[in-house]
Amino acid sequence: MNQDAKDLLLRGAAQIGVELTADQIGKFALYADELKKWNRKINLTAITTEREIALKHFVDSLSISRVIGNEGRLLDLGSGGGFPVIPFAIVNSRIDAVSVDAVEKKIIFQRHVGRTLGLRHFEAIHARGEELAARYAFHFDWIVSRAFSDIPAFVRMALPLLAPNGTIVAMKGQGGREEAGTVRPALEILGLEIRQMLEFPLPISGDRRCLIVMGRKTGE
Ligand SMILES: C[S@@+](CC[C@H](N)C(=O)[O-])C[C@H]1O[C@@H](n2cnc3c(N)ncnc32)[C@H](O)[C@@H]1O
């Protein structure tokens, strides 16, 4: 990863409230190198320039830090090349992070990255999200996804896995607020409510982002 992309990562992360250490920057650089190398053989991402990887994968993924606490168990459903879970795990060693994807070669890549970066609190599992309930019923404090599915399909998959006081976070782009408004009745039927909607521009590019934070309805 070149110096320009590293500077962008450092600056972009700081703008969303994450101060990266030199050690963490080194890990992101290794991750970017492996992503580019493996992407020549297996389809992990359409984003291939180092600047774009720094911004649209790394900084974007780190934005979930704004709504996720400092401890507990986190699940990323449909994580592909490891987003948002691996960037989050690089900066957050107190959360046990589990990554799930239905495509085995993507999980093999993620395990390789986890080993290379020494992420001991990170595990990558090859499975469909629908298959996890037997092993992980009510297990996760935080369940996140990016570019995975519409909100109702995501939360239906997440609910059996969510701890009683757990939180679901859907990472959306422009149109996130509108989608949240449309699905509110469906969420209601599932016993969920939207607790927070955080809209912000992605640093540097200004692209719109929206984090939709949901949990089980309380007081009933
Ligand atoms: C568009 S990619 C997004 C990857 C990553 N979250 C990102 O933002 O770069 C969607 C991913 O979800 C995975 N996927 C789709 N349906 C799934 C399911 N039912 N269970 C687990 N993974 C699934 C696909 O294999 C793919 O890697």
Please describe what this structure looks like.
This protein is an alpha/beta fold. The chain has a single domain (63-216), classed as Rossmann fold (3-Layer(aba) Sandwich), CATH 3.40.50.150. It has helices at residues 3-15, 22-39, 50-62, 85-91, 104-117, 133-136, 151-158, 176-189; strands at residues 72-77, 95-101, 122-126, 140-146, 162-172, 192-201, 208-216. Strands 3-2-1-4-5-7-6 form a seven-stranded mixed β-sheet, sandwiched between helices. Helix 2 runs antiparallel to helix 5 and helix 3 packs across helix 4. The longest helix is centred in the first third of the chain and has 18 residues, at 22-39. It is globular and about 50 Å long. The structure holds S-adenosylmethionine. S-adenosylmethionine binds at residues 78-81, 83, 100-103, 106, 128-130, 146-148.
Task: Present the secondary structure layout.
Layout: H1 3-15, H2 22-39, H3 50-62, E1 72-77, H4 85-91, E2 95-101, H5 104-117, E3 122-126, H6 133-136, E4 140-146, H7 151-158, E5 162-172, H8 176-189, E6 192-201, E7 208-216
Parallel strand pairs: 1-2, 1-4, 2-3, 4-5
Antiparallel strand pairs: 5-7, 6-7
This protein binds S-adenosylmethionine.
S-adenosylmethionine binds at residues 78-81, 83, 100-103, 106, 128-130, 146-148.
